[in-house]
């Protein structure tokens, strides 16, 4: 038999490692970390105020210490308030918006089930791709960039495709569209479908009432209106969503995002003790809690109103400069991220580069289907102020004066 | 046909929402965030020194700004050095160790393929569960808690099960075992199998040479020896691993963890431009870079030696108190996390609770298969010092004096 020969061969392999190990070295690494201050007026991340940065620099303690559970409980209350929901299944995923998107889809959908996504920008495409990867059957309804869907169109698709899940982006940050939500949840429920809403770009900046609007799964990110660093993603599940999730035939593909584990870690499952699932990013929980405290102090309605007023002031300023807004219909303009038709005759990339270089200010071009068509300006959370609008307008005027304009 | 009726019905649903919205309110939220200082001598997270906390509090800028790409490039070099690898496919996953574990398994394994995991604690079980969820066929080799595997046993299993992937935990933090690695990579390659190593608890605290030891996929976490907050997980893939990954028939189940996307975001794929994948947790990248700078400054060999010396000093101190080490074989004792046989006649929970209350110091009980059998003490990174050993020994002596001992 072979074992003894193999043992010898394995011992021979060991020898050179033990006797003749060469350590790889590293050079040029010790330059101190240096990060510039910058006006973050793109579609996110937005600026993080010192108060929230400082919260994140609190000492790291254990991810299952009672103080962390209390912080998680505060986060839960804050998210319930921000989402306008009483769902007990409310928590924050240890990841960014994409992680929350996968968490929503992985938990609600089983292989072979039908999923419908509304594609009027990049997010519906990504949701469709995620669902496809886990073996769902995908159908989409498609609107041109800048457009959105009527409830009639949505109902026709629900009736035709009979999906178990319908995905819609409330704030389509790639095109600047704020999608109307009223009535859609009720339509979904009529067809026994769960209503999943991405509010990464809109949450806290535009009215949304999770419970009253019949939203079954809602998530957002920490790095937009909340002004926290990227890395956590609030999410909430309705009773109806939980019914489906906790009666699955198959396990979700991800252990890390399995809601039954997350629910236990976040104290949402009513069980007396919490079992170790993963090591929560406690520093990110500190800053998320602080960012929710800021929102609570202002009041979510006030925050919605402020974003709306600042956006209208911005839009008027743009139009008075002769620039055109990409989203035609006023009520469908996202108050957090404004899309401007890329100025005729200019190279959009030259404009954003000029503004970054000259004004230390980020605005960005399009994303996905809107690349080349728009400039995007995000004024979110603490960045949403008339003073910042004036700063952006001045930077844009300056750029249009100095950047190269073709003679066409 | 139905559309007009539906429109009316949808309009009726809209009305009450618009006219009669009740805003949910929030109370008792405005208490300021408060986090205690605490000696983090459990199996992790460990203490984060001010230098690293301060790095993480730098201003947030864009996840695709050139400064961030430079920081990511520094992280890549630092991880290559720490892992002792020249793999260009080296990066950090935006998540904790579990995310990296899923990243490794999701990318390398396709449904129906055989996976072999070595189970001598909790990590092999979790890896098996993850692989099972994506439709792999699972085989395990099992050793009792505190035990490990010989190369002969491993080769027998490779030969019998012919897996595409073999999972092994280098540092089994639930049982305190440091698994020998020499020769195993070569055995895996003999059987055309990829060698996946979890070094979350061991990396930086015990010798490991990714390239020379033939490890194909290696990952760790930020919150152990590196002393950064939890939330990022360095990972590296060999050329051999990439060969399999980039010739898959099916897409990995996760878009967020798809290596072809991550490789592009981290500049590992040689393509001239980077496409938006997800919003990297830039603050966590700052602190990860700083923690790697600390390791580079000391030198990884020096760090290995220090952890070994401190562990031996600790183990001698424990034995002189009459306590027993859980791992019998000296060379298989993890220098970062020490497992102590739960003192006879005591309730282990009373001991850890007493030490936390009286000494503001975390040590922990067992995890998974070691629950009730051990106490676990982690001295990792900056926490690995003789002064801290003395502090833990004094706390343990005090606890054994004051906690209730049964008369049996």
From TrEMBL, chains A, B:
Its cofactor is pyridoxal 5'-phosphate. Keywords: Aminotransferase, Pyridoxal phosphate, Transferase. It catalyses: L-serine + pyruvate = 3-hydroxypyruvate + L-alanine; glyoxylate + L-alanine = glycine + pyruvate. Its EC number is 2.6.1.44, 2.6.1.51. It comes from the Eukaryota. InterPro entries: Aminotrans_V_dom, Aminotrans_V_PyrdxlP_BS, PyrdxlP-dep_Trfase, PyrdxlP-dep_Trfase_major, PyrdxlP-dep_Trfase_small, SP_NH2Trfase/AEP_transaminase. It holds the Pfam family Aminotran_5. GO terms for molecular function: alanine-glyoxylate transaminase activity; L-serine-pyruvate transaminase activity. The modification N6-(pyridoxal phosphate)lysine is found at residue 224. The keyword Transferase applies. Gene3D superfamilies: Aspartate Aminotransferase, domain 1, Type I PLP-dependent aspartate aminotransferase-like (Major domain). Residues 60-390 form the Aminotransferase class V domain. It is an enzyme of class 2 (transferase). GO terms for biological process: glycine biosynthetic process, by transamination of glyoxylate. Substrate binds at residue 376. GO terms for cellular component: peroxisome. Homodimer. Belongs to the class-V pyridoxal-phosphate-dependent aminotransferase family. This is Alanine--glyoxylate aminotransferase. It comes from Lates calcarifer. The gene is AGXT.
């Amino acid at each position: 038999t072979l074992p003894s020969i193999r043992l010898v061969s394995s011992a021979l392999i060991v020898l050179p490692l033990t006797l003749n190990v060469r350590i790889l070295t590293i050079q040029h690494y010790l330059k101190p970390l240096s990060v510039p201050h910058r006006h973050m007026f793109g579609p996110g991340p937005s600026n993080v105020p010192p108060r929230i940065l400082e919260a994140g620099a609190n000492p790291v303690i254990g991810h299952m210490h009672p103080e962390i559970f209390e912080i998680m409980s505060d986060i839960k209350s804050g998210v319930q308030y921000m989402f306008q929901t009483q769902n007990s299944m409310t928590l924050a995923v240890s990841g960014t918006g994409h992680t929350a998107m996968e968490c929503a889809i992985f938990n609600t959908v089983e292989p072979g089930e039908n999923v419908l996504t509304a594609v009027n920008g990049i997010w519906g495409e990504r949701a469709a791709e995620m669902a496809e990867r886990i073996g769902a059957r995908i159908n989409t309804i498609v609107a041109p960039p800048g457009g959105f869907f009527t409830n009639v169109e949505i109902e026709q698709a629900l009736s035709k495709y009979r999906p178990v899940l319908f995905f819609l982006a409330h704030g389509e940050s790639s095109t600047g569209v704020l999608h109307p939500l009223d009535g859609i949840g009720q339509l979904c429920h009529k067809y026994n479908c769960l209503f999943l809403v991405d509010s990464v770009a809109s949450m806290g900046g535009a009215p949304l009432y999770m419970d009253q609007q019949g939203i079954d799964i809602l998530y957002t990110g920490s790095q937009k209106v909340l002004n926290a660093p990227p890395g956590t993603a609030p999410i909430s599940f309705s009773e109806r969503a939980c019914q489906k999730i906790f009666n699955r035939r198959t396990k979700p593909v991800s252990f890390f995002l399995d809601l039954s584990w997350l629910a236990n870690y976040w104290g949402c499952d009513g069980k007396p003790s919490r079992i170790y699932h993963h090591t929560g990013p406690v520093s990110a929980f500190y800053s998320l809690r602080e960012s929710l405290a800021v929102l609570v102090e202002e009041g979510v309605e006030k925050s919605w109103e402020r974003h709306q007023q600042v956006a209208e002031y911005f839009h008027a300023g743009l139009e008075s400069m002769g620039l055109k807004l990409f989203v035609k219909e006023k009520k469908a303009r996202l108050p957090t991220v404004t899309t401007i038709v890329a100025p005729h005759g200019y190279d959009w990339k030259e404009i954003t580069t000029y503004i970054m270089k000259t004004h230390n200010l980020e605005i960005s071009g399009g994303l996905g289907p809107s690349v080349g068509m728009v400039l995007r300006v995000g004024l979110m959370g603490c960045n949403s102020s008339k003073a910042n609008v004036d700063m952006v307008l001045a930077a844009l005027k300056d750029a249009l004066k100095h950047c190269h304009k073709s003679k066409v």
